[in-house]
Design goal:
Low-confidence stretches: 129-147, 626-649
Structural class: alpha+beta
Oligomer: single chain
Radius of gyration: 33 Å
Shape: elongated
Strand content: 5-15%
């Protein structure tokens, strides 16, 4: 018989076996499907987010190449800058106004106004260019979609219309009506008609209006937030500079194609990838458990094929072909389900990225390459795990089949080897962790720890079962505990998957609980005033005077802020009055003479994320030059005096490092005198006030002056509430994936219990023949398996704590620059254990009942055969 015929014969025999026992093939496919589903779901979400950073457009238009922004210290541009650009022949310009509006219920909404006619023309022009280049039907459909869905006639009639994505419109305005507070007459809400546009246009959670309506809603007449330009950056800059079109009223910023956002969000996406890989490993455990069970059930069949003359290497090839086919089928199903999972996860990710980083995600897309990558990764991992088992079975003696005792002793040897490998890996990680300075390295080491932890489990539970067996008196209970040791082998992989899921769940609960307490404590010290305001720059002095004349106002605090860069990364340069700086700076480290040196301009404060990201310490020099040079590209000098005549503190040293949570940009705080000496804007950007009485009274007084709107004021309680809600959202995606991983592990346990109870029908039948009732058999088997689950949970508690410690003190610290005090949440741990026991009880009880309700005498007859 030829080699090809032998392989084909073996595959036909395997197919016939699976027709007789579909549960075995189903268990393997289940693990592969679950693994690929979570892997593709997160990969699609991450890839789409990263693509959005470089391709995200101005709303209803294409991506801008340049932005014209207000001068430092100013919040808005005047419309005359935009008109000047258009009149000079720069037609690819788009005016944008953005701000917060309040609805009658007091909720704040981000509203963005755009010159919609210019936006539509720009998109239509770009679509026409793309169509002529690519002749793409989708491009033509998108062009038609824009023109048909946007109500041009109503916009021309200056009606009150808001544009939203269809999904957002269905959520906030299902009847097509939306109300926002009139910024002038607060008692008279403005009724707005909502037009839902196809989600494919990429509006996300944005609320869009024509610029005239947005200026009225935001009370910003003749003001713009920025102007987007769409053309070759170099030629635009030359044209604007030569004609002096900005007239020192604005700055030009060249877009970075999303690189800054990619840097800011890298750790966020890395966390998602880490969770997806964890779920992928759990799924592979389930698949491998199915493969091993199937091979154990086919052990006689494999020996018979070898005895019939099938060559060992041909049988090995047939087994590999079988696994490849199962991986192919499972990957295709998992790929489809993964794309559906991505559609479910994407809104959560979009909301988090928008709140934290101001990033807007484009509509999701997928690529066939992801399916190929998932197949290859799954096949590689499957072959790596299964080849030793294939080799062991194909090389077994043909004269006899391995006895049960031999199988158990082999498993014990395997478990001891696994335990030794795990201990060695953990020891190496413990040595390497103190030297890991980058979060990528720490995550890699933590991945080794995550893989090593489940390898400890089988031998640990085996030894505990041995110890418990000695304590039990002779009889059925002693038999039950003693037999538990034999169940550890078949259940070990399912328990490893459960341990991984429980460990990840406990560690994430530790991280989230610790972060919430740390954040609340930090906010208490950071928010020392009762009311915080960000009015228009031309109203700040008037508001200061008004507050100064109010007898109930006990303190007025100003803050000066400009956005800049340090080593090509966005940061904030901040200055406050000395009292506010002392009160609000929760210092992690400081020099002995900090405040005196700070006031003289020789020392500055930097946030912890900057210190960690760039490896800065107390006493290090910190050049202010990168900030001042990045403030403007106009010919107007930044400083009011020559550099040589300024204090030598232009190169100050770091005098203090303060805790800072949630700010995606690092902060540098300098003294007010130093701020003025280097010629930075004199007008503060925000004001805070302490008030003796109900703070809502002060809010109403300020609104009555018409100097500031409700949307520009935040009281202390609202800031705390929004901050905690926003940063819970940061971890919500990871917690969802964590829960999905736990569900995957529970499904794996169900699959393992179903296969195990089917395999144990003969031993149960013997006990039944000896006089035990079916109820006693069910109780005994249930207790055995629950005991193994309970021991797994007990192992998960310390391992989860270790993983939580590494997450808090290594990964989170290095990735985000946040020092978090680790706290133990015993209630959360007990809740996770209870959930695991309850889930496993269901996973055990159902297959146990199915199997034991059958006539057990048939099992003895089958064993005799």
């Amino acid at each position: 018989m030829s080699s090809l015929a032998e392989i084909r014969l073996s595959l036909n025999v395997f197919l016939a076996h699976y027709k007789h026992a579909p549960l075995q093939a189903g268990a393997i496919l289940l693990g592969i499907i679950l693994a690929v589903t979570l892997l593709i779901g997160v990969k699609s979400t991450n890839e789409n987010a990263v693509r959005s950073y470089s391709e995200a457009t101005e709303l209803l238009s294409q991506r801008a190449s340049l932005l014209i922004t207000p001068n430092p210290g100013e919040r808005y541009l005047t419309e005359e800058v935009y008109f000047r650009l258009r009149q000079s022949g720069i037609s690819n310009a788009l005016a944008i106004v953005s701000g917060l509006a309040v609805d009658p219920e007091g909720r704040r909404w981000q509203v963005q106004g755009s010159d919609l006619f210019a936006a539509i023309n720009l998109q239509t022009t770009q679509a026409t260019v793309n169509e002529s280049i690519t002749n793409d039907e989708n491009t033509r459909q998108q062009n038609n979609l824009v023109n048909s869905d946007i109500p041009i006639a109503k916009l021309l009639a200056a009606e009150n219309i808001l544009l939203m994505s269809q999904s957002l419109a269905n959520k906030v305005a299902p009847n097509g009506e939306f109300y926002l507070q009139d910024p002038i007459d607060k008692q008279k809400p403005i009724k707005l008609e909502v037009i839902g546009l196809d989600d494919e246009l990429g509006l996300g959670n944005a609320i869009v209006a024509d610029i005239s309506l947005a200026q009225r809603l935001l009370n910003q007449p003749q003001q713009l937030s920025y102007i987007a330009l769409f053309d070759d950056p170099e030629s635009l800059i030359n044209q604007i500079t030569q004609r002096n079109l900005l007239q020192q009223q604005a700055n030009i910023t060249e877009q970075d194609q999303g690189q800054a956002l990619q840097e800011l969000t890298r750790s966020f996406h890395l966390n998602l990838n880490a969770m997806s890989m964890l779920a992928f490993v759990v799924g592979l455990f389930i698949a491998y458990n199915g493969v091993r069970y199937s091979l154990m059930k086919r052990q006689k069949l494999l020996v018979q094929l070898l005895q019939l003359g099938i060559q060992k290497n041909h049988l090995m090839i047939a087994l590999i072909c079988e696994l490849t086919l199962l991986v192919l089928i499972g990957s295709i199903i998992g790929f489809i389900l993964g794309l559906q999972l991505s559609l479910w996860l994407q809104p959560m990710v979009a909301m988090t990225l928008e709140q934290l980083y101001g990033a807007r995600l484009m509509p999701g897309s997928w690529q066939w390459q992801w399916l190929v990558q998932a197949m290859l990764l799954t096949l590689f991992a499957g072959l790596l795990a299964c080849l030793p088992l294939y080799r062991q079975l194909t090389n077994q003696p043909l004269a006899r089949i391995s006895t049960k005792i031999g199988q158990v002793s082999h498993l014990i040897r395997t478990h001891r080897i696994q335990f030794t490998i795990a201990i060695s890996s953990l020891a190496c990680c413990a040595i390497a962790f103190p030297f890991a300075k980058q979060y990528q390295v720490s995550l890699g080491l933590m991945g080794v720890v995550i893989i090593a932890i489940p390898l400890l489990l089988p031998l640990t539970i085996y030894k505990i079962s041995q110890w418990l067996a000695r304590l039990c008196p002779a009889g059925i209970w002693h038999y039950m505990i003693a037999e538990t040791k034999e169940l550890i082998g078949p259940l070990s992989l399912a328990m490893m998957a459960m341990l991984l899921a429980l460990t990840a769940n406990i560690s994430m609960n530790t991280l989230v609980g610790s972060f919430e307490v740390t954040l609340k404590t930090w906010l208490e010290s950071r928010l020392h005033a009762d009311l915080y305001m960000r009015p228009a720059s031309d109203k700040i002095l008037d508001i200061n005077d008004f507050l100064d004349q109010n007898d109930k106002v006990t303190g007025i605090y100003n803050q000066w802020t400009i956005n800049s860069t340090y080593q090509n990364m966005p940061i904030e340069l901040v200055s406050r009055d000395l009292y506010s700086t002392k009160v609000t700076s929760s210092l992690k480290a400081q020099t002995n003479d900090l405040w005196s040196e700070f006031q003289s301009g020789n020392q500055i404060l930097i946030s912890e994320p900057i210190a960690i990201k760039y490896g800065l310490n107390l006493g290090d020099s910190f050049s202010i030059a990168p900030f001042t040079k990045a403030l403007s590209i106009t010919s107007q000098p930044i400083t009011s005096q020559p550099i040589s005549s300024q204090p030598n503190s232009l190169l100050p040293t770091i005098g203090g490092i303060f805790f800072d949570y949630g700010n995606p940009k690092g902060q540098v705080v300098i003294d007010q005198l130093f701020w003025q000496n280097i010629g930075l804007p004199k007008k503060p950007k925000s004001i805070a006030a302490s008030y003796q009485g109900d703070v809502t009274e002060l809010e109403q007084l300020l609104v009555d002056t018409k100097l500031i709107g409700t949307a520009q004021m935040y009281n202390q309680a609202k800031i705390k509430q929004q901050a905690i809600a926003m940063f819970k959202q940061t971890f919500s995606i990871t917690m969802v994936l964590n829960s999905l991983t736990l569900i995957v592990a529970a499904i794996g346990l169900f699959s393992a219990c179903l296969m195990l109870t089917q395999a144990r029908q003969a031993p149960l039948a013997k006990l039944y023949a000896l006089g035990l009732s079916k109820g006693q058999l069910r109780l005994m088997t249930f207790v055995q398996m629950q005991l193994i689950v309970l021991l797994t949970c007990l192992v998960a508690l310390p391992t989860g704590a270790i993983l939580g410690y590494l997450l808090i003190n290594k990964v989170t610290l290095q990735a985000f620059g946040w020092s978090i005090a680790m706290l133990w949440d015993w209630h959360a741990y007990i809740r996770v254990v209870v959930i695991a026991l309850t889930t496993s009880a269901v996973a055990i009880a159902i297959p146990l009942y199915w199997q034991t309700r059958k006539p057990l005498i048939n099992s003895l007859q089958q064993e005799a055969l």
